[in-house]
Sequence to fold (401 residues):
Amino acid sequence: MVTDEIATLGRARVAVTLAFAAHGLLGAAWVARIPQIKEHLGLGEGAMGVALLGAPVGVVAAVRFAGRIVGRWGSATTTTAAGVAAALSLVPLGLAGNLGALIVSLLLMGASLGLMDVAMNAQGVAVERGYGRPIMSGLHGSYSVGTLLAALIGSGAAHADVPVPLHLAAAAGVLAVLVVLGCRGLLDRSADALPEPDEDVPGARHSGGKTSRRGSAASGRWPLALLGIIGLCSFVGEGAMADWSAVYLRENLGTGPGVAGLGYAGCAVAMTVGRLTGDQVVARFGPVPVLRAGSLVAALGLGLGLAAGDPTAAVAGFTLFGLGAAVVAPVTFSAAGNIPGVPAAAGISRVTGVGYLGLLGGPPVIGFIAQGVGLTWALTVPVVLVGLIVVLAPATATAGR
Fold:
């Protein structure tokens, strides 16, 4: 019996790792082609910012109901279905012939990715509980591997002048198959049970020797709000790296289309390294010191890189941002999924809803700001926001419990 449980848990870890990798591939499949799409449609920074609003609208709509959907269908089924939908959304994105079509395509992509994100993180929390030790940073590391591969493939396709519709259609087919086959080993619905309160976790309330779940859920609102703000501060920068780094390098610093994709690739490489080693680092030093040190590295690195006004320095700045922000998402989601009396999917959906406003809503705002003061100054917004994590980091103190 024990051997069977260990084997089931092992298969689930492989499956959820593949789900995270697929999510990264899906979200970043098109980012290196943004300059070509922008140029093909004849869009300025402001119009491109409007187009990018489609994704956050879709995410907000999906995340609002994600907790209920996962509660009804389970995190495994929801992860698979949303992943396939996200893959298929790449096809109309590549075929978009005007601003309206681009907005609708991004709305569909955002909704699918938002729902998949909540479901796969809830599954990750369940697998982490089974192992009894931190694994969320490693799971998010596989997501970063996916974004890195997508960035490199996209840069290569752009350099080889592969048509955008062909590139994204091929990616859609491959990724849909990966999601269907890779997610077969996920844990069933029994893994989505409400986390048991722990008297060592601040916020758990007791009555007559038993924990009051209503009181625990109520006391969990404030920690969830703080965790959401931390996610927002970090994800604005992540969204900016994905959507504007290539544009900045190509249009502000005059690089070629192949080099322009290296800014996001550098960020993705550093984030991958940081997350793949993050579980051990957080276990040794604790989430609060790690988040504080990382946020300082991210803010200083990106700020100095922008101030230099040189392609090499800019790529280095994007890279340091990725390294410093690497553990924010896994630590934040782990904390949100383990708040006593709050279902993992419900906690994660609330934090994800706020965080994704930064990840997907930040780039359009940066586009609007760039229209007025230039892209260089607009990219200082994530520098300021990520620096705020130094103050907010204590909210993650119970991560992983």
Summary: The two ends are 26 Å apart (CA to CA). Strands lie at 206-207, 210-211.
